[in-house]
Amino acid sequence: MKTEKLDIVLRANQLMDRLVGWRRDFHRFPELSFQEKRTSEKVGEILESFHTYEIEKNVGGYGIVATVTHGEGPVVGIRADMDALPITETTGVPWASHNPGVMHACGHDAHMAILLGVAQLLAEDAKAGRFQGTIKLIFQPAEESCDAAGETGAIKMLESGRLHTDAVLSLHMCPWRKSGEIQWNDGPSMANNDEFHLKIQGSGGHAGYPQHVKDPIWMATYVLQALYSLNGRKVNPLDVGTISVGQVHAGEANNVIPSIVDIKGTIRSYKDDVRDGLCKEIHQVANVVTALGGEYSLRIHRGEPSLINDPRINRIIKEAASGLNMYEEPFGMGSEDFSHFTRKIPGAMFFLGCGLEKERSLHQSDFDIDERSLPIGVRVLLESAYSLLERGGVH
Question: Which residues are annotated as part of the binding site for Mn(2+)?
Answer without folding.
Answer: 106, 108, 144, 172, 363
